[in-house]
Amino acid sequence: MAEEKKIRGYGEGKTDTVVSVDEVLKESEKIKAKVSNEDLLSLSNNAKFLEINGLQAGYGKMQILHNFNLFIGKGQSLCLIGPNGAGKSTVLHSIYGFTDIYDGNVIIEDKNVTTLTPADKLKNAGVAYILQDNSVFPDMTVEENLLMGGFIKDNVEQSKVAAEEVLKKYTRLNERRNQKAKNLSGGERRLLEISRALIMNPEILLVDEPSIGLEPKFIDMVFEILGDLQKNEGKTIIMVEQNAKKGLEFADIGYVLVSGETVMADTGDRLLANPEVGKLFLGG
């Protein structure tokens, strides 16, 4: 009996619309175009709330990002899409301090934060990272998980005040504040992860795969929460999202990454309408 070939790829709908990962990578190489800093700046409305300049970064001797640039204005949202291994999560890791940076810099409000530790990025530069993996503490209660978000605050009371503000905002969590996190649904755990990141009142949210592993109804809920944080609280959001359609529908700006470089950049709406992007990442 012949071994069944597994299908891996992108897109939604029937299997004949799915493009294999290898084909996506091959075809993505063909759409490479020079994206200038002027192009990127115009998408940020010529603002530089957060900027990345000429970043060369990776892990140990493995370089992932090659002369990577990024510009985003305060209160904007940006979604990074591209094939597996393109360096999307490495961008978030580099901003937060999880990678080895060989050259280039990360600037926030004209301050060079490239070499700050993740704790300093959170406390002094207003950057919070929401991991793609299930990062709640399962045997802690909802309230205890929230308090962990303020572990670098000067005292516990400050964390408690911040936690109460978050619980007041998200009644779904408040109703479960004394329940252990392991008893929450997938969507509730994701809400808890986002809420925990808010304890330090960050200005910039780095969000890695917000929809991963969630049912459609919870995906919508998570994106509604992120939209509220951007539009009503002025948060600046940079996300990686494998569901490219959902990510680009949400974001003001989209970058397409291939092999650690930006090969396309435009508004989220225009990338959604781009036939090449549609073919490779949106299922045709």
What do these coordinates show?
The chain is α/β, with parallel strands linked by helices and 284 residues long. The protein has one domain (14-136, 187-281): 3-Layer(aba) Sandwich (Rossmann fold), CATH 3.40.50.300. Helix content is 38%, strand content 24%. It is built from twelve helices and twelve strands. Strands 8-9-10-5-11-12 form a six-stranded mixed β-sheet, sandwiched between helices. Strands 4-3-6-7 form a four-stranded antiparallel β-sheet. It has a two-stranded antiparallel sheet with strand order 1-2. Helix 8 (186-197) runs parallel beside helix 9. It is globular. The two termini are 32 Å apart. Residues 1-18 have low confidence and may be disordered.
